[in-house]
Predict the 3D structure of the following.
Amino acid sequence: MNFTKNIQTVSDLGATQLVTMFDLLPGILFWIKDNQHRFVHVNQAFVEHSIFSDRKEIISKTDYDLFPVHLAKQFHKDDEKILSGEEITERLEINMASGGDSAWYTTTKRPIYNNEGNIVGSYGITHHLDKQALVLASVEALKVPVDYVRENFADNLTIESLAEASFLSVSALERRFKKYLKKTPKQFINEVRLEHAQRLLVETNKPISQVGDECGFPNPSYFTQQFRAFFEELPSEFRKNYRGK
């Protein structure tokens, strides 16, 4: 068998033909971006996961056109790292599934080089972990605390009460969050609260002070401080800018 000839045959396949092969892989989201963070290709699973119904609607858009601000912000930071030559390999994440519920994923991202060795874009793969894969990835250990936070974030939730509800010591709880999510339990609680606050600011006309209170923040000043630190704009600015689109 002429392996050299076979390899050359594969190399001669058009790029479009190669990337469309990812449409055949269930549970795999695949995308390619240029060096301006714009999508130049996505597979069908990516389309079904998005707010759009056609692949053509996504091309030339950025993450800020497709995802909530806090997620788009994280993806943009990832892109900057990838475009500088870094790589991300099977990072464990909790993101929104197509049905609106949260789900576990692993994500891998790589830079794209041209023939001169310059980085001209990036590509990535996100894999939705089913129940069996979750067990194999040993992240079932986080299911109880993650679910507890999402159900009780509006309460006076402390690390101690979360650890108790998870039947773990505080130190064991913190180790698990840092190992699998690369963040502390406190950071995760704060992000869940801010994610919900963002939704209330968009979907309701509730006063900002009420939004903060319903999301578990002790006072309006602290809510505004945390929101601005995370989203880089005030709650009032976010509401105004979003509705002005």
User: Anything to note?
Assistant: The first strand starts at residue 28 and ends at 34.
